[in-house]
Design brief:
The chain is 42% helix and 18% strand. It contains 13 helices and 12 strands. The relative contact order is 0.13.
Length: 335
């Protein structure tokens, strides 16, 4: 295989354009102002340079569309970032100037962005008003890969260190911000068939798996780590599958459905506490048996200084890290 570290810029531009246009070669060609046959030739060259028997290709042709593989998804962000950096260098070499405002890139989940991350960003910008922050709410896997590839300076994730290492394919700096317990939340309508069962759940102790059989659940999507752990916990403890009525992404969306009386939400305590700063009065909660379902450990990740267990951060990025840690210290999660 040829060395993928020497990919021509035009191949990376074509790859990113294809990804941005959902695999439509004609649309990518119009954006790049090249013909569709030229797009196809470039993609064939990209495949020769990046894939062999031991490495998967970045793209696969299915019908008339090019689909990103998992490797393509992993490379998409870093390729786009390289192109942006190249254009900045081009502009500077032509007599322009680089942005004078220091920039830091941060990735987190939607709930964190509306919660403690928002508080940290507000505090940080008060201290460093000249700074610029680029905030992404990508999925956890994309956040980890983005830090490893240099797309993000920092990311907030709730994955275990072993999963972070496996996803990043390299050692990253990982530090704990806080523990975030998973709870159940619901607002059953008076005539709901499950209202009585919800009302009879214990309030003086965590609910066991056997207490939950028969309740209609609103859960994260099947590929979410916490969803998989919850499903396995219920089945392992009771031999019964979870009755899922709605599966969706984002803690806030899950809680919105629960507030509407459509089922029992599995959500993090911080998601409930951070909903517009107050918990909806109609939403009641129950604890889960922590010995069976461990709290989410929220981590801050960054690239490492070579040979040291320290984050490779300077200036603006180091300042944002400090602000996130200070805000995490006041994020109180009931034990």
């Amino acid at each position: 295989m040829s060395n993928p570290n020497h990919l021509p810029l035009e191949l990376l531009e074509t790859f990113v354009a294809i990804a941005d246009h959902d695999g439509d070669a004609a649309a990518a060609g119009r954006q790049l102002e090249i013909s569709q046959p030229t797009v196809s030739k470039r993609l064939a060259a990209l495949r020769r340079l990046t894939a062999d028997g031991s490495r998967p290709p970045w793209l696969l042709l299915k019908g008339k569309r090019w689909l990103l593989t998992s490797e393509g998804e992993r490379m998409r962000g870093v390729a786009a970032d390289l192109i942006r950096q190249y254009r900045r260098v081009e502009a500077f070499a032509a007599g322009g100037s680089l942005p004078s405002r220091p920039e830091v890139s941060l990735a987190c989940g939607q709930q964190a962005a509306a919660g403690f991350v928002k508080g940290a960003v507000e505090r940080f910008l008060q201290e460093q008003p000249e700074s610029r922050i680029r905030l992404s709410t990508a999925r956890a896997k994309a956040r980890i890969e983005g830090v490893a590839a240099g797309r993000f300076d920092l990311a907030v994730v709730a994955e275990a260190p072993a999963i972070i290492r496996r996803t990043a394919r390299t050692e990253l700096f990982v530090e704990t911000l806080f523990e975030d317990r998973l709870v159940l939340a619901a607002n059953p309508r008076p005539k709901a068939t499950w209202a009585r069962q919800w009302g009879e759940l214990p309030t003086d102790r965590p609910a066991a798996a056997r207490d939950l059989v028969g309740l209609p659940f609103i859960l994260p999507e099947p590929d979410a780590t916490r969803r998989q752990q919850f499903d396995q916990w219920i089945y392992r403890s009771t031999g019964q599958p979870v009755d899922v009525v709605i599966e969706t992404g984002g803690w806030q969306t899950i809680l919105d459905f629960a507030s509407a009386g459509l089922g029992v939400a599995l959500a993090s305590q911080s998601a409930i506490d951070w909903l517009d700063g107050t918990r909806p009065e109609e939403l009641t909660t129950r604890l889960l048996a922590v010995r069976d379902l461990h709290p989410r450990i929220v981590h801050l990740i960054a690239r490492k200084i070579h040979g040291q267990n320290e984050p490779d951060l300077e200036g603006t990025a180091a300042g944002l890290r400090s602000a996130l840690k200070r805000m995490a210290e006041v994020t109180t999660i009931p034990r």
